[in-house]
Inverse folding.
């Protein structure tokens, strides 16, 4: 099972956009030679990094006057943006828990599959949040 995992993790890493010289890339390069638990640590660390970036993007959204009005609250403490953030976290945790359980027979352990899912969903959410800002700052000529 571990060899099957390492092969899949290595392929996932190779085809990942993160397979460049980054803290995550460096961690994964070393971890895939060690153990599945080491890979999970890398993914959890990357998720923390992505969450910090996401929080920064949420704060940047509030710098836009229209978004601040839409928020109808007190920054990230209370309002639509906080509700959206909390809803995303809740959905991500439930979805990834079920996803991980469903994938155990195919790839890695439940722990690995959950960490990968959480990281991937967090990355995708960050991309979506950045689009709000990009759209608000773009102009049509």
């Amino acid at each position: 099972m571990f060899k099957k995992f390492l092969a899949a993790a290595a392929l996932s890493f190779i085809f990942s956009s993160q397979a460049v010289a980054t803290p995550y890339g460096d961690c994964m390069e070393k971890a895939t030679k060690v153990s599945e638990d080491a890979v999970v640590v890398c993914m959890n660390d990357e998720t923390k990094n992505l969450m910090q970036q996401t929080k920064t993007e949420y704060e940047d959204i509030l710098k836009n006057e229209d978004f601040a009005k839409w928020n109808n609250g007190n920054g990230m403490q209370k309002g639509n943006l906080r509700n959206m953030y909390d809803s995303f976290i809740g959905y991500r945790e439930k979805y990834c828990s079920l996803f991980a359980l469903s994938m155990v027979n195919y790839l890695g352990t439940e722990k690995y599959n959950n960490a990968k899912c959480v990281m991937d969903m967090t990355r995708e959410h960050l991309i979506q949040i950045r689009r709000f800002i990009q759209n608000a700052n773009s102009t049509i000529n």
